Here is the input.
Amino acid sequence: MTNAPSSTRVRRNERQTDEQADEREHEHGDLSCPECTGHLIVDDEHGETICEDCGLVVDEKSVDRGPEWRAFDAAEKNKKSRVGAPTTNTMHDKGLSTNIDWRNKDAYGNSLGSRQREKMQRLRKWNERFRTRDSKERNLKQALGEIDRMASALGLPTNVRETASVIYRRALNEDLLPGRSIEGVSTACVYAAARQAGVPRSLDEIADVSRVEKNEIARTYRYVVRELGLEVQPADPESYVPRFASGLDLSDEAEHRARSLLQNAKEKGVHSGKSPVGLAAAAVYAAALLTNEKTTQAAVSDVADISEVTIRNRYHELLEAEETIGVA
Here is the structure.
């Protein structure tokens, strides 16, 4: 009478020990069936772990850690996602603060009453004040706004804006701004970031969208590069060719021909001491003539923002280098 319960307890303890061992093996990634040692597969749709060979359900009711909604394309997935926008250096608070919508409507789209509108206006005012707590943040907010404005006017991609914002933050943290204008330093950061990203803009193009003079931009740019130790390669004339060719509606053949002219000029050393913008504009003009595409020096001058005299001078130098290569 006394042996039966004890033997039952022994079997129960053994069974519990075996189950605990199986759980430990499963936790350590031993994905093998306890019956036939077959391979286990996880069915996320039904929340089960099943043996691929014998069909044994090893685990069920597993936790689904994914979202409770379904999406059938990227647009629907982005629409249903509940995460906020990614952090960005193009905003002084990196996009982590909360904005109060300017529209005086509630969550259902209904217009607010007069008292609620006054309340929301006061909240917007104080929210804007709290976002910039000190002079450093106000400085950064103004500068990043300038960087975004100039990058938009120049058609620069997002990565250039991010790089320019990081450069300005470094300049601000290392106290390079005293004695220099916010607009001058932010313009120099845009110029440096564009060259680092391989989509350079000429100083004349930068000065056209900036609020400071060309000489101040060049002087501030040299100062920022020197003090921050930025690695900025000399501008390559070939990097201007795609933009000029696109502005003139030239074919891929003409663009390829312009690159070939510039490569020949580099081999002969014609590019040394010359403006890369002028060389690129002359190469595009010469390539258009060589491929029988209609364009004029005036049109190239407008697109490249450089004088027709410079285009003519560089044009003859490029053709002479081409002839020299052909003779050799």
Observations:
- The first helix runs from residue 3 to 27.
- Residues 91-131 form one domain.
- The chain has four domains: 15-82, 91-131, 137-228, 237-327.
